[in-house]
Amino acid sequence: MFQLPRFALFAIIVGSTFAGLPHKAVAATRPASCQAPVHRQFDFWIGDWDTFDIGALNKPPVARNHVDAILGGCVLREVYEQSDGLVGQSFTIYDTDRHLWHQSWVTNRGQLLVLEGAQEGGRIVLNGVDHGDEGAKIRVSWEPQANGVHEIASKSHDGGRSWQPLFDILFRPHRS
């Protein structure tokens, strides 16, 4: 017998509950759950950015990146377009139930990376597993800088005992 996954059943129930209600009525029933300061920790990343490899800051950008707040400020949506044709999007949210940041990253090359973590000092540090690379551990950090946002990613093939650089980039405000 076919069974709907729980999330699908929930979506049907919620959808049917709000079906027929005007948009403003649905919006009015949502709690203002993303207003706490913890939800604003990653707002430094919001913006329209040119993306540079740290070792080549005087060369043309390697990508264009746009990050905006959506869904009432509860979610950061990233649209990343690299000069070699790679396009990716991420959705980042502070999970109040588990008290951590969660990011899902997907690309036009079929890649999926799920990262989770917390603020450490002035930066956000998220960790995950690259299932496409024999389960390598991934660590990514974002830190605001005077001239943008610095993002560093590292990979470990030995359970986190040693780390190799994956990329080191700087987001600078986009120039037209």
Describe the structure.
With 176 residues, the protein is mainly beta. 11% of the residues lie in helices and 49% in strands. It contains two helices and ten strands. It has helices at residues 6-18, 23-29; strands at 47-53, 63-70, 75-82, 87-95, 100-107, 112-120, 123-130, 136-145, 148-156, 164-173. A ten-stranded antiparallel beta barrel has the order 1-2-3-4-5-6-7-8-9-10. The chain is globular, with a radius of gyration of 19 Å. The N and C termini lie far apart (57 Å). Mean pLDDT is 86; it is low at 1-19 and 25-31.
Largest sheet: 10 strands, antiparallel, barrel
Share of helix, binned: 10-25%
The total of helices stands at: 2
DSSP strand count: 10
What Rg, in angstroms, do the CA atoms define?
19 Å
State the gist of this model.
The chain is mainly beta. Helix content is 11%, strand content 49%.
